[in-house]
Amino acid sequence: MDELLVERVLRLVEAIPAGFVVSYGDVAAALGTGPRQVGRVMARWGSDVPWWRVTNAAGELSGGLLAEAREHWQAEGIELGGTGRGCRIGRCRWQPDELAAAARRVDTELAGARISSPAAPPEC
């Protein structure tokens, strides 16, 4: 997996404000990648970011994550869905333009970090 993509996904998920959710597809569209890649990043490296703010397109999460996500959703005021398998993503989705703006900020920050980091000294 591309390390830059991993960092972009994780930083964008960190930027999602409390009380809002987005889908894997929303994150993918904002970053110019695919939802499966976003899902892979979240499954492997997403435990230290607010992962409960990223769901499938229906606002649902897999059963193993649902109980813990519900606690976070309740604490953040995210309304639970009628099926019991997720949240009402239509009511609490972070606006796509705000997500896209956050993605541009993430990319700008990462580009600045790569440009400003000093080159490694040559090996002797």
Give a description of the structure:
Helices cover 57% and strands 3% of the residues. The model has no long low-confidence stretch (mean pLDDT 91). A two-stranded parallel ribbon has the order 1-2. It has 124 residues and is mainly alpha-helical.
Summarize the structure.
This protein is mainly alpha-helical and 124 residues long. It has six helices and two strands, in the order H-E-H-H-E-H-H-H.
How are the SSEs placed, and which strands pair?
Layout: H1 3-15, E1 22-23, H2 24-31, H3 35-45, E2 54-55, H4 63-76, H5 89-92, H6 96-116
Parallel strand pairs: 1-2
List the helices and strands in order: HEHHEHHH
Biggest sheet character: 2 strands, parallel
**Oligomer type:** single chain
Uncertain segments of ≥5 residues (pLDDT<50)? none
The helix/strand class is mainly alpha
From the alpha carbons, calculate the radius of gyration and give it in angstroms: 16 Å
Which of globular, elongated, flat, extended, rod-shaped describes the shape? globular
Keywords:
single chain; 124 residues; mainly alpha; two-stranded parallel ribbon; 6 helices; 3% strand
